[in-house]
Amino acid sequence: MQDSRPAESLWSIAERQLGNGERWREIAALNERRTMADGQVFKANSFPQPG
Fold first, then answer.
1. Residue 2, pLDDT above cutoff 60
2. 26 neighbors 15 (Cβ within 8 angstroms)
3. Distance of CA 26 to CAs 1, 19, Å?
């Protein structure tokens, strides 16, 4: 996930990127089980990692 910051939530990312925190589920659905740049697999039930 791009533009992630430490201890950030999907809600705050959705607010910043999509203009509405309630759209966090869209981000979660699009990224679920995706391998991130650091090799970790995205899981919607955990905090996003930087990078």
1. no
2. no
3. 13, 13
